[in-house]
Design a protein that fits this description.
Layout: H1 9-25, E1 35-40, E2 49-57, E3 63-69, E4 77-83, E5 89-96, E6 103-105, E7 110-111, E8 117-123, E9 131-137, E10 143-150, E11 168-169, E12 175-179, E13 189-195, E14 201-208, E15 219-221, E16 226-227, E17 233-239, E18 244-247, E19 250-253, E20 256-262, E21 268-275, E22 293-294, E23 300-304, E24 321-327, E25 333-340, E26 347-354, E27 360-366, E28 378-385, E29 388-396, E30 403-411, E31 417-423, E32 430-436
Antiparallel strand pairs: 1-32, 2-3, 3-4, 4-5, 6-8, 7-8, 8-9, 9-10, 11-12, 12-13, 13-14, 15-17, 16-17, 17-20, 18-19, 20-21, 22-23, 23-24, 24-25, 26-27, 27-28, 28-29, 30-31, 31-32
């Protein structure tokens, strides 16, 4: 933006003072040049390609993540970024998948108390239907991978197929996750992995979706799970529910938010706190694939990949929304749309993260104004504003700096924001790890 170079010295000084005051009094002000690429992935190397699933810190401030492609066999890696004294980051490959031990990791990673990493792959394993894996650090700096469970190990894949999200721990050290039902004749599962004394893990299925007529209980869970304080599990399914919506794949179920409550005598009971698109207009959103998060008052927040403003992309399916679910005294939940994406401000939002001041942060796979077809994606911030929420675009991606960001964003102790971008699909960029500094 051009500026008038004829400002007098007094006017220039006043301008500097005004700008300085604004930056000091506006909470969370973000500079224009606050985006930094920590690592850029390359095509056709052992480096890894197209990171997904977000990042996780260890106690020393190092970052860990996965790439969907790349590595020795081209089917994904687990990587580590170590912060160097000069401010740079060194990347190391902890594990390169081969297929038998899994391929195409896409969910986030999680640490246990001993420093072991856990995650999922969409394919590979003994039946080629995906795995849950563990990476254990060795004293010499290497890591050893082991497969805790290979999916489709039961008849008709009743244990699930292709987990696309990561896993979470309960307080007893059990792992929980979701797996889709593609090819399994059902709508996907919620599963639990229990460690045995001999080091093996036993999988059990807590719930199988599409158990009800017309899949009103949901179908195809694609998100990680979350616990509430009472030990109930919450998640989303991309399809199913009581209503149908327009979708790029055709007319499908709009998706649901589900809850699994443990029974006193064993087993779990599923209920549906919310079914999307109740008026078949989808202004409330449709096709949720991201994980949910709680605020301190017990309200749930999440995103949908489609729905919202039906005219945003010219296809009538919407670009997605950010929503809030508030529990009512009678046990029902009320949905409120906090923000509807319209293409230029983002499209297909991913997971949300709360900032230190209670603002919501996230990214979108597409949208924005630069580079890729229909935009390369944005990093956004939602701030409470007079009873509503105001969106600020913190960064708009172009194909040379990354494209198609995925997974959740994470904060460090200094309030810096970290995430991953995928490739642009046009052979220009193959993903990156980035930092945004307030």
């Amino acid at each position: 933006m051009s500026r008038n170079k004829r400002l007098g010295s007094l006017s220039g000084a006043l301008l500097v003072i005004v700008i300085t005051v604004i930056l000091l009094v506006v909470p969370g002000a973000w500079a224009q040049n606050n985006y930094k690429t920590l690592h850029k992935f390359k095509q056709g190397t052992r480096d890894g390609q197209d990171p997904s699933g977000g990042l996780v810190f260890d106690q020393s401030g190092n970052l860990y993540g996965v790439t969907f492609y790349g590595g020795a066999e081209g089917v994904g890696v687990v990587f580590k970024l170590t912060h160097q004294s000069d401010g740079s980051w060194r990347k190391d490959i902890l594990h390169s998948f081969t297929g038998v031990d899994g391929y195409y990791p896409s969910g986030g990673l999680v640490f246990d108390a001993k420093g072991n990493l856990y995650g999922t792959t969409q394919g590979g394993g003994t039946a080629g239907a995906g795995t849950v894996f563990q990476l254990a650090p060795n004293s010499n700096g290497t890591w050893t991978e082991s497969v805790l469970h290979s999916f489709c190990s039961l008849t008709n894949c009743s244990d699930g197929v292709s987990p696309v999200a990561g896993v979470i721990f309960d307080e007893a050290g059990n792992l929980y996750g979701t797996a889709s039902g593609a090819g399994g004749g059902h709508g996907g599962v919620v599963f639990k992995l229990t460690p045995n004394s001999n080091g093996a893990w036993t999988e059990s299925v807590l719930y199988t979706f599409c158990s009800l007529s017309n899949c009103t209980d949901g179908a195809d869970p694609s998100s990680a799970l979350i616990f509430d304080g009472a030990g109930n599990l919450y998640g989303t399914t991309q399809y199913g529910g009581r209503f149908t919506c327009p979708h790029p794949r055709g007319t499908v179920g709009c998706g649901v938010v589900f809850k699994l409550a443990p029974n006193s005598g064993g087993g779990w009971t599923e209920t549906v706190p919310y079914t999307f698109c109740p008026l078949n207009k989808c202004y409330d959103g449709s096709a949720p694939t991201a994980s949910l998060i709680f605020d301190q008052a017990g309200n749930l927040y999440g995103t949908t990949g489609y729905g919202g403003d039906p005219a945003c992309n010219g296809e009538g399916v919407g670009c997605g929304v950010v929503f809030e679910l508030t529990p009512n005294a009678n046990g029902s939940w009320k949905e409120k749309v906090l923000h509807s994406f319209r293409g230029r401000n983002g499209a297909e939002p991913n997971d949300l993260t709360f900032g230190p001041a209670g603002d919501l942060y996230g990214n979108t796979k597409w949208g924005g104004v630069n580079g890729c077809f229909n935009g390369c994606g944005v990093v956004f911030k939602l701030t409470p504003n007079n009873g509503g929420w105001k969106e600020t675009a913190l960064h708009t991606f172009v194909d040379h700096s990354g494209a198609g960001p995925g997974g959740s964003l994470i904060f460090d102790a200094n309030g810096n924001l970290y995430g991953v971008s995928g490739g642009d699909g046009n052979g220009h960029t193959f993903g990156s790890v980035f930092e945004i500094t307030p």
